[in-house]
Specification:
- It contains five helices and no strands.
- With 125 residues, it is mostly helical.
- Helix 2 packs antiparallel against helix 3.
- The longest helix is centred in the C-terminal third of the chain and has 30 residues.
- The chain starts with a helix and ends with a helix.
Length: 125
């Protein structure tokens, strides 16, 4: 009876994600590179248009978020049967809906509540 209990504990330790020194160093080096390149883009004034610079920096930020999630948080489709990644995707969808909806409401409030529009509306019969 005691042998049965030992068997259930032995395979439990293999479920979680494991990383090595090499994995952490790869994540660290990628993070340093993904931080240095946008810093150089801004300091060297590589692009003439600031909007292009902002979009490139945003792209590097998204890549760096993915690097942190994979190498440091160990989120992948294999850990805990994929539920970690599914929860992360659901959270990202909710955040996107919240941000997009907030920006949409603020834009339309700004557009519809402009002082010039209010004045023109009062003048019409």
């Amino acid at each position: 009876m005691s042998e049965h209990h030992h068997d259930t504990h032995d395979h439990h330790h293999e479920d979680g994600p494991h990383s090595s020194f090499k994995g952490y160093m790869t994540g660290f080096l990628l993070s340093v590179v993904l931080t240095t390149i946008p810093f150089w883009l801004v300091m060297a004034d590589v692009f003439e248009n600031r909007n292009i610079t902002a979009l490139v920096i945003l792209g590097f930020a998204l890549i760096q978020i993915c690097v942190h999630m994979v190498f440091f948080l160990h989120l992948n489709f294999h850990s805990e049967g994929g539920w970690n990644m599914l929860a992360l995707i659901f959270t990202l969808v909710l955040v996107f809906i919240t941000l997009a909806g907030s920006l949409w409401v603020m834009y339309h409030l700004n557009h519809n509540m402009m002082p010039g529009m209010m004045h023109e509306h009062n003048l019409s019969p």
